[in-house]
Amino acid sequence: MNQIETALNLNNQAKGWWNELQKTSGLGTAEARTRKSAFSRFQEQGFPTTRQEDWKYTDVHRILDIPYAWPVKDEQELSAEIFSRLPLSPLTGEDGYHMVFVNGYFMPDYSTLPAEKAKGITLKPLRKASGEKAWQTHLATVAETATGFISLNTALHTDGAFLHLEAGATLDKPLFLWFVAQCEQDAYFIQPRNLIVAEAGASANIVELFVSAGEEPSLTNVVTEIVAGEQAKVDYTKLQLETHQNYHVGTAHVSQEQGSRVDTHLISLDGAFIRNNLNFSMKGKSCSSILNGLYLLHDEQFLDNHTRVDHARPECFSDQLYKGIMDDKSTGVFNGKIYVHPDAQQTNAYQRNVNILLSDDAAINTKPQLEIYADDVRCTHGATTGYLNEEAIFYLRSRGIGEEEARLLMMNAFAGEIVEKLNIAALKEPLTRLIADKLRNRQELAG
């Protein structure tokens, strides 16, 4: 085991990992400079605390004081038998491109990429992309180093996906990015990084899947940067399917030029502690941004979804819908901000957060926000939280449906609205089944 022996706190461990990287990395000059600047920034920032407004409800202390190991490339073998038991693994049989990463490192034997000479398309592991112009232009420029988590990822990320679509290029099949936390012997700190660049008129469908194997905990700190050029179209789905002992801090930053459209779908079905940051920057006129989210929480699970949509230019459109079902002593947070700059006239921006509580001990802290500095706009926001509608349940029971089935029907319909918004058809049926099984299992345990 090539594990650096350091003090318990992740802050101290990061210093040891950074020193080791300096000895062994062999990084090019530009990458070394970027990483060094980011680590200096991390040392200034540290990790966020509840004294910061954006982290008011999210105490990261419990995920930092764990003796994490640093994953070493090729240290673990991912067996086909283990992979076949992971959630949604049958999707690997779907007609698409697949990149598999284990503890942050690319696994070529499990991956299927486009032909090397695919016109206008470059898809490769990020660690092999430093010679690409798009890498040099965009890496660490879209995701601002607003928190220690982002800075630390920029300094110490291992690998991830690099996708560059030249002007007018179309990725003909969905791209599935599998991130496996394999923690059978050690608790790992895992840091993937993804860079997606779609030039003018390009289009792609991308799915990130986070799954886990093993009984030890893990902390995944992932950053994804998406650049959408003029008239580009990007569909981005993130599925969080890790287990009850996994922690996850994820950040996705999207930069949009004139006339581009980016749809996002964030579905969180498991995980002990999850913090999702999703930030949009509309830098050109007539951009469209769609933000759909679904989360199912139980036991003492914690999830915090933070979104920010910056309307910086006129005539842009954004629509957010996040829905949650919470049971037992779980806690959810939704903080969504729409920021309309003075020049962003004729903005249309909408935001809703809708929650169902299945237990008196479950809690949701919801804070939809509008900050508007233009006068010709149409913006709305709202949040609702409540229990299942007893009148609707009574109606279903009056039609011969048992109470348990009536409740399941209503919850599946509630979640199904988000699933139906997915633009990749291959995801809908397996996700619908996975959600139905999860809801039924929870109801049977409660009963």
UniProtKB/TrEMBL annotation:
Residues 33-175 form the SUF system FeS cluster assembly SufBD N-terminal domain. Residues 188-414 form the SUF system FeS cluster assembly SufBD core domain. Coiled coil: none annotated. Belongs to the iron-sulfur cluster assembly SufBD family. This is Fe-S cluster assembly protein SufD. It comes from Compostibacter hankyongensis. The gene is sufD.
